[in-house]
Amino acid sequence: MTAQVRARGALRPARAQSARAVGAAAIARSILTVAILAQWAAALLAGPSAQAEPLGVQPSVGVSAEYDSNPYILASRAIAAESGAVNVDLPTTYNGDEQTFQLEPRFRYAQSAGVVALLSNYEDIDGLWKLALERTVFSVTGSWYHDSTYYNQFENAALSGRTVNRTEQKGGLDWRWLLTERDDLDVSGSFDKVGYGANSAGILENFEYSQAQARFDRSLSELWQWSFIAGYGYYELPDSDYRSADDFVETSIQRTLSERWSLTAQLGYTYLRADTRVPELYCCTISPSGYLELYEHSVIDDSSGDTPNYAVTLERRYQRLTLDLSASRAVQPSGFGALLAETDLSLHAGYQLSERWRVGAALHSLQQSDTLGRLNLGNGRYYDLDLSAGWKWTARWTLRLNTSFDLQRINRQQAHRANVLLSLTRQFGRFGL
180, 296, 419, 429: most buried, per Cβ within 10 A? Predict the structure, then answer.
């Protein structure tokens, strides 16, 4: 898959100001993070709380080693990379009678050898506040992510071996009403803002995507549940004059076939439209000095299209084995500069060997298509096979091994890679704050 590469000039002064603003915001976040870590360190030194206090933190610390045979997933000139990393997870929760609060910062600090690509550092912070009353539930979510490479395999391949800084900010509101014993109404909105570093070479573009939707759920019986969803999404490229929107309606049915079988089927329709403001020169206008001059006028280039979307999930649970088969097609925002339809197929299997040992396998396939024809995506398809094993060493220690084999086909070219990750995690008890 290749994305259309548009010519880019030098960075505008406004972008330089934006970079300084982002730097100041990063410094402020670092100060806040140090303050939070200092508070948690004091709690750790004080030891676990004897009583279950409503506000507390349950940290975990781990180390990992990783090997990647082809981090960029290139068809040629593949160079392996390996890294050692320290991972820290500090989930903080508050559980009251009506309110729930969760804040979960995650950090990864790695030292890599070879090509520095997917083996990168990251900082993630997720937040949730929920208010549950008798017949209504209101929740607010917020997230901030920063890493040095975007982990989408298609976009990595399009970058042809470039490491890209990526920052994402997400937020959401959700309000659910319990209308009757069988009926629920849910109204939600979300916002997603993604920015890439200057070294994205003009292939990936910063984008903003907001969405609003309403969902109605009805429990038809103890085994059947029906849902209807309608919504609107708006996609924008802040650095260009491209705008796109999608209107969608979906209906789904969920059936609990038995204690071990469950089925969910969803079918929908999405209508997409986009417009681009293209400046053109026209002749002519008379200047104050009496000369003929060209004048600029913006022409709007419109496009539209529609696509079906669906989702099917079938799950089978045995005493120790769980099988999960899913297929879906949905419109998603992308860094290529357009809303893309993603077709996703996956098969997951998990087996509990004993109380301490669990193994799993997953087969996954993904393809992207551009309904509006803005990009030249070709016929790219991505496959991966993942194998995992987890050992609960003690109640607090977990040893985990993950291996994966990835295959990517893009415009008659093929690339593959193998990845091995070994991690050891120490889970601490809950500390009251």
Answer: 419
d(CA 22, CA 33): 16
- For residue 194, the one-letter residue type is V
CA torsion, points 280, 281, 285, 288, in degrees to nearest 10? 100
CA-closest candidate to residue 245, choices 300, 205, 302, 183: 302
Segment 215-218 long-range contacts (CB within 8 Å, at least 24 positions apart): 215/185, 215/186, 215/187, 215/188, 216/183, 216/184, 216/185, 216/186, 217/183, 217/184, 217/185, 217/186, 218/182, 218/183, 218/184
> In the structure encoding, which two tokens stand for residue 180, read together?
């009757």
Q: How far is residue 92's CA from residue 59's CA, in Å, rounded to a whole number?
A: 8
Contact 403, 419 (CB under 8 A): yes
Q: What is the three-state SS of 223-237? A: CEEEEEEEEEEEEEC
Residues 237, 19: Cα–Cα separation, whole Å: 17
* Most distant CA atoms of the chain, gap in Å: 90
- Cβ-in-10-Å burial (0-12, 13-18, 19+) of 158 comes to buried
Q: Which amino acid is at 167?
A: T
Q: Compute mean pLDDT per 10 residues along the chain, 433 residues long, and list them.
A: 30 34 46 49 50 81 89 72 89 89 91 66 90 92 80 48 75 94 95 80 83 95 91 91 92 84 92 77 66 62 87 91 94 88 92 90 87 76 84 88 80 78 90 79
| Three-state DSSP state, 242 | strand
The pTM of this model reads 0.75
* Nearest to 227, CA basis, from 238, 240, 217: 217
How far apart CA 40 and CA 57 sit, in angstroms, is: 8
Q: Which domains does the chain have, with CATH numbers?
A: 54-432 (2.40.160)
| H or E stretch at 268 | strand 261-286
